[in-house]
Each structure stands twice: as C-alpha cells, then as structure tokens.
Amino acid sequence: MIHLKKISINQLICLVILTQVGVSVLSIPYAESRRSGYDSWMSILIGGILAQVVIMIIYQLGKRYPDQSVQQYVFTILGKPLGSIFNLIFALYCAQSSVMVVISYSDVLNRWVLFQTPFFVLIGISLVVAAYIASSTLRSISTITQSILSMFLICAVIIFISGMGKGDWRNFMPIGTHGIGSILKDSIPAFWAYAGYELLLYVFPFVKCNKKKDILIAMSIANGLTTFFYLLITIIVTYNFSENQLNTVTEPMVYILRKFRWPVVQSLDILFMTLWLSITTVTVYVYLFLSARYFAYVGRKEIRKHPLIVWIIAIICFAIGIWFSDRQYIFKFSDYHNKVTMVMIAVPTILLLISYVREKVARA
Predict the structure, then answer these.
(1) Which residues contact 163 (CB under 8 A, 6 or more apart)?
(2) Which tens digit of pLDDT belongs to each residue from 298-333?
(3) Distance CA 79, CA 220 (A)
(4) How many CA atoms lie within 13 A of 222 on its CB side?
(5) Which one of 14, 84, 220, 339 has the lowest number of neighbouring Cβ atoms within 10 Å?
C-alpha cells in the first residue's frame, strides 16, 4: 500500500511551502514587474490572495468527500469515462510541472555555477534523486520534506542578510502610480508562482487532524508564509534595483547574492543555489508522486505498482527535458505551462459546482 500512515498537520504545512517555492524565487519580481514596476509587491500580494481563494475552493471540494482523494471521487462526480480522462489530464499536468521545474533550475545552474556540465547530466541527476524519493510512501516523502525545511530556513536567512546592503527606499516611491490595472495584470504571473496548493486535492483524506477545518488553517498558514517570503524577496530586490534595472535583470536575486561580500563565505550565490537545489527537488518529487498517483487511477482498477509508474514517468520526463538545452525553447514551454496552469486551476471550481448540481438533482 502506498499509504501506511497519515501525515500530520505540520508535515502538510512543510509539503505545501516547499512545493510552492521553487525556481521563481530567483526571478521574482522580474516577471511580476512587467507593467507594475516598483509596485510589483502589490501584485505578489494579490497573487497570494488569489491562491488562498483556490485553496478554499479545493477545501470545500475535499470536505464533501472526506474519505477519498480526488482520483477516487472524480468518478462519482463525472462518471467513469470522464473521470479516467480527468486523472490522465492531471497526471500529464503534474509530469509537465516536474519537467518545467527541472529544466528551469538546470538552466540556472548551467548559466551561473556549472558552466561546463552538460545539460542532460543536470536534468538526469535531478530526476534520479526526485524519482527515488517519489517512489516512497506519502508519509516518507513528508518526513524527508520536513528535514529539508532546515535548508529552506538557511536560504531565507541568506536572502535577508544579503538584501540588507546598499539600496534606495526611494525605489518604492510614489506608491501605486502604475495604476490598479497594471498591478492586477502582473498579479497573474505572480499567481503562477504559488502553484503547489493543488497538492491538497490528493492529500486531503490522508491528513491526521481532529477537525477538517484544521486542514484549511494549515493550508492558509503555509500559503501565508509563502506569500510573506515572496513579498520579502520582492521588497529586497526593489530596494536594490531601480525600475529600469528590474526590466532587464531576469534573476535579480542571484545578482544581489553575488555582489554581497561575507567574510565567512566567498561565493554566497554558489552556496545559495547549491542549497536551493534541495528545495526545487521537493517540488519535482512531489509532482512526480502526484503524477504517478493520478496515472494509477486512469484504468478501471487502481494500478498498485507505484514505484514502477514513478520511474517510467521520470524516464519520459528526462527524454523530454534534454530537448530544452536551448533557452528559447524553455521560454516557450514556460508560457505554455502557465496557460495550462490557468486552465487546470479552474477544474476544482467546475468539479465543486457539478457536485452541488448532482446533489440537488438527487434530492429532487
């Protein structure tokens, strides 16, 4: 069985936080400041609020089927044929998310740290480690993620310390001059950075809690901490860069780390990106795990060979990933992935509405 024990509330919080934060940490607020400029911190905040709305929708959906994961109760809502298609689509989406994270961070490492290392080697190592962990039980994955949390805290401290260098608070002034329209438009790419909360669709029945409301509180805490973390990075970057620089520097956090001089560590950026590799690995193995669990319910009966499914998905992801050594393909794939993400986010809302309609029809 893939589920030997339920995970705790604390483990749920760790899973969600470390799945949400990923490669985007290095690029925030570059994508989120295209229109809003130095008001991008508002876009980041709105993105976190939008993510919280989706979390509440997923919670309401899970509360209607408290003893089943979405792979199971989707058959009740949509029927067998459509339910299988739903599981297949979500399995492909999670696999695609794994590929997106792997190739994005491998590209960063290849350009900033490991210049001579072949691209396929970076992708291969990342996927092997992630697949090995993803082939475990949910409880084991949660325990590993808890241990990686210390890496995240160290990275957060590094970001805070490095951001306290020379900057200019006037970069934030005057507040709100870009207009609410620009801020709202940039909140969409900010919203994409919070992806990871969809984990709740699967883990809802496997969280040990006294009341189901505790799950919503835990998810809200996790999303709130991620929002605060993203907001902190945005403030630090805006403090250090002018608006014109924000439009040209794609990975501003790396520049801040590189220019910071610390007597204890010579190359703070290399240390940070090495530690952050463990954080991005969490995102990869969580999505690999979810992809395998969705694939397990595509057929008429549950496929119980979870490790085999994980490794097959990882091999396919590797075969796809090696084609993205050209950065132009990564940009195109990223745009495609973001559009797909927006569509997939609407799915829980549709499922919730259909479940309400079916319930009313059954009562009539």
Answers:
(1) 235, 236, 237, 239, 240, 256
(2) 877 778 889 999 999 999 999 999 888 778 888 888
(3) 31
(4) 29
(5) 339
User: Which pLDDT belongs to residue 204?
Assistant: 92
CB-count exposure of residue 44 (10 Å: 0-12, 13-18, 19+): buried
DSSP letter string, 46-75: HHHHHHHHHHHHHHHHHHHSTTS-HHHHHH
| pTM summary value | 0.91
Going from the N-terminus, what domains does the chain have, and what CATH number goes with each? 9-359 (1.20.1740.10)
Q: Name the band, by pLDDT with cuts 50, 70 and 90, for residue 362.
A: low
Q: Return phi, psi of residue 178, to 5°.
A: -80, -10
Structure-block tokens of residue 278: 């463990």
Question: Tokens standing for 118?
Answer: 């072949």
d(CA 330, CA 270): 23
Q: Which is nearest to 44 in space by CA: 194, 259, 156, 260?
A: 194
Give 207's DSSP letter: B
CA–CA distances in Å: residue 185 to residues 172, 180, 300: 19, 9, 43
SS3 215: helix
